Structures are given as C-alpha cells and as structure tokens.
Amino acid sequence: MPLLFTSPNAGRSASIRAQARLRAGWGVPVRDDSTVTELRAELAAAGETGAPLEGADASLQKDDLAGVVYAALAYIFWGIVPIYWRWLADVPPFQITVHRVLWCAIFVAVVSFARGRIPHLFALLRNPRILATLTLTSVLISVNWLIYIYCVASGQLVEASLGYYIVPLLSIALGVAFYGEHLSRLRLVAVVMAGAAVILKTLDVGHIPWIAPALALSFGFYGYFRKRANVDAMDGLTIETLILFPITVALVLFWTFSGTGAFHGTTLTTDALLIFGGPLTAVPLAMFASGARRIRLSTLGFLQYLAPSITLTLAIFGFGERFTRLDAVTFGCVWVALMMVALEGRLRR
C-alpha cells in the first residue's frame, strides 16, 4: 500500500482533489497538512472497520511503536467484535442496535463531560448546518450498525467483509462524483472490477446481494458527510448518539413495559452485555485516536484491512460460514482491484 506525502500548498482546487484521493486511503499526493487533518477523521466512528482519525500527521517520517500498537489493537478489536454480538444471539438485531446507540450516548456524554467538551458540544449544536449533517450521519451509521449486527445474527459475515473491502473503491467513485476528481485508467479498471464482483455475486445467489453494497454505501456516505461536518471524531459520535437518544429511550421503555424487550426481561448477563455495548463502541475509537496521531497515514492504510480480513477468517473458520469458489473469485476481483490502486499510488511517488 502506497505512502502518503506532502508538498507545498497548491491552492484550494488542488486541496479538494487531494481530499477526494485521501478519502480512498491510498498513496497519492496530499498538498497540505490541513487536508489530512480534515479528511481521514471520521470513518473510525463507524465502529467495526475503522479509518484513520483526525489529527493523523502526514509529515511523520517514522512510526511510534505505541501508536502502531494502539491502532492495530483497534483494528483487531473491530475484526473480532462479531464474537461479542453473537453472545447476544437471542436478542433481535434491531434491539441490539438501539441499545448500542443508547448506552454509547450515555458513555460518550460522560467522557465528554470529563474532557471538558460540553461547552464545545453546545456550540456545535447551535450550528444548523452541522446539526443537520450530524443528524443525517447518525441515521447512516445506525443503519450500518444494524446491517452489520444482522450479518452476525444471520451468519452472513463473509458478505459483510466483502462490503468493507469495497469501501475504498467506493470512496474513489465518490471522489469522482462529488469532487470532480479525474479517474485514471487503472482506477477505472479497479472500480469496474469491484462492480463485476457484485454482479458475480448476484448471479450466484439469484438476487441482488444487498448486504455488501448496503454496508459499503452506508459507511461510504457516512464518511463523506462526516467530512463535510468537519467535527472531531469523538465529538461527532457524541452528538450523533445524543440526537438519537430520545428515540432509543422511548423504544427501550416501550419494550420494557410491553414485555417484549430483551433488557430487564431476560437475564442479568444479557443486560450487562447490552449495556457494555456502549463502551465497546467508544473505547476502540479512543484507542484509534491515540494511535493515529503517532503513526504515518501510509501505515494506517496498511492496517485498515486487518478488520475485514480478521472478520472473514473468523466467519469461515470460527463460525463455519460457506466460502464457495465463486466467493473466492468475487473476493479475488476486489483484492486485485485494491492492489491495482495501491500500485498506482506507488508509481506516483
């Protein structure tokens, strides 16, 4: 995977192109450090796969060992987190997602208070554009979490892994669509190969394989709009979960009083697992934030594929999911496409 490097500021238009390229996570010229700070920030708040956080320094010449450890642990955690959600196999995925948002909101609110961020959060909430954007991203990330937990519950983690492998290629397409970025021949071939992989999967299952595209689209657009909000990752996660907090409280109370909820209606173990799902979402993000500020963006580019790779391995060898020959061809198309983009990045150096 290619290295990212900086060169003198070449103006706003160049910066915008650099932003679009940087969002794809590949080695291409980045023309100013502020672009780096703005752009690689917010995808990690999605939870399962992660992406480099705000504050990563593209000017670093070498990696700090502690930073590598923190970032790697975060990615490894996101790769094995399906094990945790499988412990809640008796709880409907929608209820798990609601509790995840609820307890995450409480946890990050406490952390924000401890960090002295409450005045800053109120200032952000008074900005109509930021509030509207974070309302949209709160819905996108909740949908992403719901689909992912559904994949765990229904034994479809192989397809979920495919979705997260597609995300960088989708980022390239978003760069073309929304930033007017020029698409090189090599990247065009890579995007076409990713599309071919989805078509192959469609022919195999006899219907549109909605899980991988849905995960990729919800996560990709989440990152796109979070970038536009230009809000710190933890602050953004706090506001996103607090926006949905009243709805989640209402749903949990309804389920509790109607006797249809898993919380306070089954076992103490289930209650504890649901509550701990909140910190489980936020703590790896904090670890990642600590790591991302200590290592190069190129190192983060290498590490970002730990999570879907671990999840894919876990799905096949741990949970016994089928991995057919056509699955091998499908994943092969995506992996080759990713290597092509990585190769292009190295050739640009």
Q: How does this model look, in words?
A:
The chain has one domain. Helices cover 73% and strands 1% of the residues. The chain has 15 helices and two strands. The longest helix is centred in the middle third of the chain and has 27 residues, at 128-154. A two-stranded parallel sheet has the order 1-2.
Secondary structure elements and pairings:
Layout: E1 5-6, H1 12-23, E2 29-30, H2 33-39, H3 65-80, H4 82-86, H5 93-114, H6 118-125, H7 128-154, H8 157-179, H9 185-205, H10 211-229, H11 233-258, H12 268-292, H13 297-303, H14 306-318, H15 325-348
Parallel strand pairs: 1-2
Brief synopsis:
Helix content is 73%, strand content 1%.
Strand-residue fraction?
under 5%
> What is the approximate shape?
globular
Rg over CA atoms: 20 Å
Oligomeric assembly: single chain
Terminal Cα span? 12 Å
Q: Given the helix and strand composition, which structural class is it?
A: mainly alpha
Q: What's the SSE pattern?
A: EHEHHHHHHHHHHHHHH
Strand element count? 2
Task: Tally the structural domains.
Answer: 1
Low-confidence stretches: 1-59
Q: Please give the share of residues in helix.
A: over 70%
* Widest β-sheet, arrangement of strands: 1-2
Kindly state the mean pLDDT as a whole number?
Answer: 76
The biggest beta sheet is recorded as: 2 strands, parallel
Helical stretch count?
A: 15
